[in-house]
Structure formats: structure tokens, C-alpha cells
């Protein structure tokens, strides 16, 4: 006997993972993510946010060997995902180096279970890597 389409739909819905919010870096084409399930996130004004910050999480990543010890947290492209409780939308803020690569953005959204139709993407002055801040070193001379 075949299952009804309603039964298949319920099974698929039950398998959808809960969205996460958090912070991330792109180091040598590898994503480093520290995240929290949306239901467990901190409330901050109209937002649900991840409690970790780039400085302390980077130090933790360096200590456990996830991040390069010789690299400062602001050198690599980075970003953050948060959730607006009023608009009921996610916001992915990231360095331009990340946003211009659709494959990396897709991977972030997939790993954090973000809904594509309900996630805004943009830049923020906090999330600019050294290459974006200073450009080509030859330009500085």
C-alpha cells in the first residue's frame, strides 16, 4: 500500500533540522562555525543571537587546533547569523569575500539549516577581512 502524500509531507517536515544562529570564518576555503540552535539562542532586544563572539571563540578554536595559531581572528573573512523576532527573518552578515562566493554562502546556509526564502544577506563594517580593508599590498605603497 502506498503512503499518502500527506504522510510523506509530515515525514519530510519532521526531518527538517532546526535553524541555527552563530558566527563563522572562512579559512583556507574551510568554514569554521560556532552556532546555537534558534530555540536556545539568547534574546537581545528584537533579536535572537549566539552568545559567542569572534574574539573568544577564535581563541578557543586556536587552543583546540581548529584555527591557525599564527592568525588573528580579524584576518580571515568572517560573519554572523542572527534572527529578528519581529520580522521573523534571519540575517546573514558577512565579509564581501564570503558573499561573492555563492557556493560558500550556500554551504553556510545548509550547515546552519537556514531557510533560503527567509534569510537576508548583507555586509557590515564589523566583518571585513584584511584583504577587504587594505586591498592589495601593492596599492598601499
Descriptive key words:
single chain; 141 residues; 31% helix; globular
Question: What would you note in describing this structure?
Answer:
The chain has about 140 residues and is of the alpha+beta class. It has one domain (about 20-140). Helices cover about 30% and strands about 30% of the residues. The protein has helices at about 5-15, 55-65, 95-100, 100-110, 130-135, 135-140, and strands at about 20-25, 30-35, 40-45, 45-50, 80-85, 90-95, 120. Strands 1, 2, 3, 4, 5, 6 and 7 form a 7-stranded mixed beta sheet that branches. The termini are far apart. About 25% of the residues are buried.
Order of helices and strands: HEEEEHEEHHEHH
Q: How many β-strand stretches?
A: 7
Percentage beta strand = 25-35%
Mean pLDDT, to the nearest integer, reads 86
Low-pLDDT ranges: 1-13, 137-141
Number of helices: 6
Counted up, domains total 1
Please tell me what the overall shape is.
globular
Which secondary-structure class do the elements indicate? alpha+beta
Report the helical percentage.
25-40%
Radius of gyration: 18 Å
Largest sheet: 7 strands, mixed
The termini sit apart by 74 Å
Blueprint of the fold:
Layout lengths: L4 H11 L4 E8 L2 E8 L4 E3 L2 E3 L4 H10 L14 E7 L4 E6 L1 H4 L2 H10 L7 E4 L7 H5 L2 H4 L1
